[in-house]
Amino acid sequence: MTTTTPETRAKTEYRNWIGGRWVPAASGRTFQDLNPARHDEIVGVFPQSGADDVDRAVEAAAKAFDSWRLTPAPRRGELLLQIGLRLRERKEEIARLMTREMGKILTETRGDVQEGIDTAFYMSGEGRRLYGDTTPSELPNKLALSVRQPIGVCGLITPWNFPLAIPTWKLFPALLCGNTVVLKPASDTPASVAELGRVIEECGVPPGVVNIVHGSGKEAGTPLVEHPGVRVISFTGSTEVGKMIGGACGQRLKRCSLELGGKNAQIVMQDGDLDLALEGALWGAFGTAGQRCTATSRLILDRPIAQRFTEMLVERARKLRLGDGLDESVEVGPVINEAARKRIHSEVEVGQREGARLLTGGEPATEGALARGWFYRPTIFGGVTPDMHIAQEEIFGPVLAILVVDGLEEAIQVLNGTRYGLSSSIYTRDVNAAMRAIRDLEAGITYVNGPTIGAEVHLPFGGVKETGNGHREASHTVLDIFSEWKAVYVDYSGKLQRAQIDR
Ligand code: NAD
User: Fold this and answer.
1) Sign of the torsion angle spanned by Cα atoms 59, 63, 64, 69
2) Calpha distance 424→421 (Å, rounded)
3) What kind of fold does domain 264-448 have according to CATH?
4) What is the pLDDT of residues 224-270, one digit of tens each?
5) Residues in contact with ligand 1 (CB, 6 Å cut-off)
6) What is the pTM of this model?
């Protein structure tokens, strides 16, 4: 994100979407969305919003809530179905735009849009379920049941690595439950959400039900978190920011769901299918240039296969083709911006100072056309020990740390030995080892014979320990974030009946 001067203003000027109107920031200020593969290309210019814009958006959302909450859930679901169908028509176009603003390769941005489509279809069906419970009352002639109710205005704050998928994970269930929303997308990837807004508008969602406010975390995100009219904050991003947001919500007794960082690991046991594990490790570590919350940033190898596997992996990693993700032959795109590249490089330097062995990569890639973008070479460290910084902290770039262990017990212990707990994986042909890993790995997600990435929208998504605060997105479990349970008792006895007393 850079501040726009009049000379650099691009043709594609986007606006906030508030109360059904596309409006500039109250201050008139803007920022630029740049292509990380060629940073002289401005993808779009966006409003640099502040507290005034957030106030207006929350006001519009609060006004729209009165009628949206009374719209039957199946009707709300039908609108989500329309949105999913329209996203499917525009999939390729949005994927290309997303590659330009985020950098990941087209195959992956197509997958990102597809995840939004899947979420729309899945959530549209939920409109005819949204189940509560019916249960016997302890008293005669009394009906007992529970129903889900909408909460109010939800503030959604999203990161740049899944520019469309993550916003839809929050937006669609929030809407389905009858809430209205103010969405603040990441300022590195605002265009994908702006296009999502256009799709939502075309599909006839009433004005004010969805509002989009662009801008930085401090200027637009903080006022949204602190706004008294916002009843729920759903945040995905770094653990550092998540802790601040969690604290601010706690002070205000505001519901808050946090999906935060990870330090995910893939275990390869000596009996595992090594070729399969190799494909998994490459995709897990270097897909999206390692910038996934579920990226494989640690590889835990059983000693008997460690050397051979490491050699195979390093050879393949060296051959990965870097470049502009719009080129279908490219395998790894750039990292998101210059600050991220600098941060990744400084983490690599820490690894070297700690005594880990740099096996490949370890520097920015600047040859030829790569000089125009923020590329970093796929990097692998050997000789890493569990206490090292590079084995503990999320790097969020194409950097993989290899740790060698003796057997399953130690592998599980090492995998569990970080403050995070999002995704985990084990490659083994031993069903007993797989079952023990499923039981003992401290993570919200465990894959057996698959990489650490590949979540599907109808299974719960989230992590343990400092990866979050106990909520799960996706699946029907996300409904617990965006609805309030109400217990209902209907007494048809015609007399006063007292629970726990009349026995
Ligand atoms: P980030 O925390 O810097 O920003 C995320 C969002 O929060 C952005 O929209 C940003 O503008 C906003 N923000 C920043 N400071 C804020 C503040 N003080 N108040 C309110 N809003 C604020 O994270 P990022 O760099 O965009 O994303 C990368 C991080 O996200 C990584 O740590 C990654 O692991 C995590 N992530 C987690 C998941 C998950 O589901 N667990 C998924 C994707 C990414």
Assistant:
1) positive
2) 8
3) Aldehyde Dehydrogenase; Chain A, domain 2 (3.40.309)
4) 999 999 999 999 999 999 999 999 999 999 999 999 999 999 999 99
5) 157-162, 166, 184, 186-187, 216-218, 221-222, 225, 236-238, 241, 244-245, 259-262, 293, 394, 396, 422, 463, 467
6) 0.97
